Amino acid sequence: MTHPYFARTRHPRILAHRGLTSTRGDGPAVWENTAAAFAAAHAAGAEYVETDCRVTADGDVVLFHDETLARLAGDERRVDEVRTMELAEILAPHGGLLTVTEMLEIFPDTRFNIDVKSDAAVDPVGRSVAAHTHRVLLTSFSEGRRRRAVEAAMAAGASLRPATSAGKASMVQVRLLSALRLSPGRVLRDLDALQIPERYGAVRVLTPALLRAAHRHDTEIHVWTINDPDAMRRLLDLGVDGLVTDHADVALAALA
What domains can be seen in the chain, in order of their start residue? Predict the structure, then answer.
């Protein structure tokens, strides 16, 4: 049965990768995973936002991709070494810090794809999404972390299991089994989506066999991170169910 996460939304799905950032204009750039980036994605018409969570030194689950602040802020400290208030001050000129709880409250109509980036975030993110599991998908490259986050949401009183997509190990298994023309049903039975790159180095991950196998088991295929309009149209013509993109506005126009 299709998870409510996918109900009453456009298909194919367009997932705004960390929101919709901007470097245009005279003001400071809008950084990824900020309130302004999510507001821009919402204004562009994106129904889905892909984001990432980590825990600060105060134990707050915040939206941040990298382990450290180096790439965005030129600060070598890890996110879990920084107090929440200080992180909020750093992000304030660039779109504004959000916790998972704030994100769900501020954007009540948006569906979120949350990548759990650290073990410390597993239990608190589960508690934060428990009342919103109809519009949340939890994932992680770590299969154990993904499963524990889903279990944490249920343990926190969720009436519905959050949607979930494959970790790295499941991706590899489905790719191999489909290439051997063996059923990946056992791997896919608790998965709502496979979120994969089109290629990983020299290896083609997305294949017609994988696509057919996933669809036979009612599992959606979302491909990341696709920013070229021609590539978007080509993948949609192949039958993928969703695109994760830095340019949700461009993708929505291509889909239209």
Answer: 11-164 (3.20.20.190)
